Each structure stands twice: as structure tokens, then as C-alpha cells.
Amino acid sequence: MRAYLRVFSLFALITSCVFSEEKGGYIGIDVGSSYTEFTQDVQPIGKILASNNLPGFMLKAGYKTFFGESKKYGMRWYLYGGYSYGKMQDVKADAFRRFGQQQPQIDTNSIFIGTGKGYYTHVVDYGVGTDFLRNFVVNDDHSFGVFVGVGIGAETWIANGKEYKPSGQESLFNFQTIINLGFRGVIKQSHGVEFGVKFHILDAEIFKGSGPSPLLSKFNGMAAQLSQAPMTTTTTMRRLHSFYMSYVYNF
Asked: pTM for the complete prediction?
């Protein structure tokens, strides 16, 4: 407890200094990884679930301004565009494994049951955002603080394996809302470093179709058994959270 009090007292002493982080434009790049979940709901058979981390990057450009004489509080607005790529792993497909146990040669650990292939996916995201800024540690030419904000935009998911889906509609545009928060530092007015986390609020439904799935052809006799049953396939992707670090150039 005493150690925390010393740190708090040091912060209070430092923040009593006057700092004038300048308003103006900036550009930056984020590099990080998103924890992503895949859900393919094949009814009346069951669900295929998978998850993995998708590494990626994001470019952003915007404008920031500060309020009051101390300029410890500020806002920024920006445009962003990013790209991530990865392979879905940690597959859970109990409904399909039940049939796979009857045919041991089938690899039920693959997202494409019986194919031995994986589910590779690309995602491009783009939109606008705004952050509230609060500087705590300040002196003549650098600062340290926090930020919290929201981004509103869209995602485009592009996945392989079209031959393993029934006829249906693919969606290449899905709205997304992002909660963004983290720590930021500025050195010599021009150079910034940030560490943050983003929470992606909305699911992206990337495919919805009807009819028997080609996946069923991997199970001898199963396709014929269920070919008369009404079937639907819905695939959704969700990036739950993203951890990242940024370099920001202020001008």
C-alpha cells in the first residue's frame, strides 16, 4: 500500500507542471493481434466452432486538440483502415465428431471436416473514430496519459473454402462498433507510442445459405440420409478483442 501511495504522490507532483502538447494533425500505424471466434451453424446437424489470434496492422490519420490552459484534456478524430489474416484453429465440432467416430479416417480437427484443410480468413476494416485524451505525467517536451474512445465503421471478411458451402449469400460488408482504450506517450512533441486494447462489439454474419452442405459428402451415407431434411448454414465471425501497440507521428 505504501508503494502505491508513493507512486500516486510522484504522479501528483509531476502533473503539477505545466505542459503544452500542441494541437494538430497526426498519422500512425497499429500493429497487434485480434482474438477471433468462428461459428458455422449447420442445422439440423449442429455447430462448428473455432478460434484463433489474427495478427494484423492498421493505418490511421487524424487531428487532435486540447482544452484549457493546462491542456491536460483533449480530443482527437481520425480515419482508419486495417488488415488482418489468420487460420482458424482450436476447432470444436462435437456434432460432426459424432459422425467422424464412425469413420476414423476423417480428420475432425479440421474446420473442413474430412478435407484436412484449414479455414483461412482475411479481414479488412475501415471507418472513423474519436478518442478522449487525458495527460497525467507532463513536463516541457513530453507527456504520458490515457485515452478512451469509440470507432464506427465496417468490416469485410474474405474466407477460403467456398466449395464447402451450400448455395447462398455471402456478405462482404458488415457494420462494426469498436471501444478503444489504452495508454499513450509523446516524446519531443512529434513522436508518440501507444499501447491499447479494442473491443469489437458486433458479430459479422459473412454467409447464409440453404440446402445440404457439401461437408456432408465426407461422411459415407450421411448425405443421403439427410438430403431430404431442410438445412441452413450460417457463418459468423467475431473479433472479441485486439491488443496492439502504435507509433504516432504528430505534425
From this structure: 0.79
